[in-house]
């Protein structure tokens, strides 16, 4: 593998990691309301128990701190969403937002102070359970971004562990040890969730990239199947499909459809005299002229075979069609590609047969091409380097 390929693969991996990082952060941001609601409900439950035991003096300040952090977190979440909408995702700003989750962790860490003033076992156990529940919930709601999980869980649970361990009571010390084990296990759950989500996102993005690649390859194959390799124009297969589609569309309204068939005069002599390389270059120049004349998105140009080209002009009347055909003929002559063996001129010329038909009645799309072909042979019979045209009604029947 070359150094260029290695650099390309490294850049692709970096882009993938950035995309995964932003998706994981978006997952956390999308779940921001859940921990905030849990924090509000859990703190009310704990504070309510202390109110019931007449411990308002400690419960009210803590409740105010918790709700203040909820308000700040709501503001920061809205600000970050607006920032991303304007400036796009920034890893630095994302990290700062993740660390701001620590405000809620600190607020719940202050809840450990309630343990020192718990009036009974029920209030103490309710406080411990609420703090552990918040940490456990964070494994899922914050686990997509591990810095955010640790920013919340460490300041939320360690103060409680410290208070329990410093009490000197055997039961409290056991609870402190249990809380540490609980924190380790929940951290492992958060890590596994993080890895699973990362793997799922990687597979999702890789599958999307594969689908995009296959779609692009299919589009390229379809384009190659419908494109003439030499001139870049549509090929006969593509033209026949477009003709049938446009005919079916225009038949419903009886609108006109014009077809111009072009043949390069004495092209076999040109090839025999100047060689096939010069012949290919000549056809490319003629194709370019036809592209430039037929610029409208509703005009279809194709190489019909050999030195023949064809133009489809939906909803174009005879007068406008003749103008297009004459411009093509003139522009080809103006190329002044030398053709000393031509019996028409000393440069490349073209004969064109053009027909306008009213779609409907007994006339078919094949009739339109056949009539254009008849006019082309008429142009050749009358001396070449000219346009012959015909207007054909829907009720007429080709001979």
From TrEMBL:
Any Pfam family hit: GGDEF
Domain of life: Bacteria
Molecular functions (GO terms): diguanylate cyclase activity
Record domain GGDEF: where: 255-392
Alphabetic keyword roster: Membrane, Transmembrane, Transmembrane helix
GO annotation terms (biological process): cell adhesion involved in single-species biofilm formation; negative regulation of bacterial-type flagellum-dependent cell motility
Stored Gene3D superfamilies: 3.30.70.270
TM region(s), chain numbering: 32-52, 59-76, 96-115, 135-158, 170-190
PROSITE patterns the record matches: GGDEF
InterPro entries listed in its UniProt record: Diguanylate_Cyclase, GGDEF_dom, Nucleotide_cyclase, Rev_trsase/Diguanyl_cyclase
EC number: 2.7.7.65
GO cellular component assignments: plasma membrane
Enzyme class: transferase
Catalytic activity annotation: 2 GTP = 3',3'-c-di-GMP + 2 diphosphate
SUPFAM superfamilies: Nucleotide cyclase
Name assigned to this protein: diguanylate cyclase
């Amino acid at each position: 593998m070359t150094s260029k390929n290695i650099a390309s693969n490294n850049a692709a991996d970096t882009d993938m990691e950035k995309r995964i990082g932003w998706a994981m952060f978006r997952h956390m941001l999308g779940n921001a309301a859940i921990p905030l609601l849990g924090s509000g409900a859990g703190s009310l439950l704990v504070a309510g128990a202390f109110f019931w035991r007449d411990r308002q003096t400690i419960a009210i300040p803590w409740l105010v701190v918790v709700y203040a952090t909820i308000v700040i977190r709501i503001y920061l979440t809205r600000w970050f969403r607006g920032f991303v909408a304007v400036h796009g995702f920034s890893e630095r700003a994302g990290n700062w937002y993740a660390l701001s989750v620590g405000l809620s962790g600190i607020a719940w860490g202050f809840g450990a102070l309630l343990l020192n003033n718990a009036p009974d076992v029920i209030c103490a156990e309710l406080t411990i359970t609420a703090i552990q529940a918040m940490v456990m919930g964070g494994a899922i709601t914050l686990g997509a971004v591990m810095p955010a999980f640790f920013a919340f869980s460490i300041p939320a649970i360690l103060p409680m562990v410290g208070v329990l361990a410093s009490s000197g009571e055997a039961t409290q010390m056991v609870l402190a040890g249990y809380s540490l084990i609980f924190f380790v296990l929940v951290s492992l759950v958060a890590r596994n969730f993080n890895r699973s989500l990362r793997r799922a996102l990687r597979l999702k993005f890789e599958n999307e990239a594969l689908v995009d690649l296959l779609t692009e390859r299919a589009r390229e194959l379809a384009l190659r199947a419908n494109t003439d390799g030499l001139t870049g124009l549509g090929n006969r297969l593509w033209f026949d499909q477009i003709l049938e589609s446009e005919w079916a569309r225009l038949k419903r309204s009886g609108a006109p459809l014009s077809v111009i068939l072009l043949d390069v005069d004495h092209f076999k002599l040109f090839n025999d005299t100047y060689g096939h390389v010069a012949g290919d270059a000549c056809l490319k120049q003629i194709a370019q002229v036809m592209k430039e004349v037929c610029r409208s998105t509703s005009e279809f140009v194709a190489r019909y075979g050999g030195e023949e080209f064809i133009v489809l002009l939906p909803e174009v009347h005879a007068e406008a069609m003749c103008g297009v055909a004459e411009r093509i003929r003139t522009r080809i002559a103006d190329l002044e590609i030398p053709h000393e063996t031509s019996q028409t001129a000393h440069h490349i010329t073209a004969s064109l047969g053009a027909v306008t038909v009213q779609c409907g009645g007994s006339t078919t799309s094949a009739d339109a091409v056949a009539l254009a072909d008849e006019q082309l042979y008429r142009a050749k019979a009358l001396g070449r380097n000219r346009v012959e045209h015909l207007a054909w009604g829907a009720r007429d029947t080709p001979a």
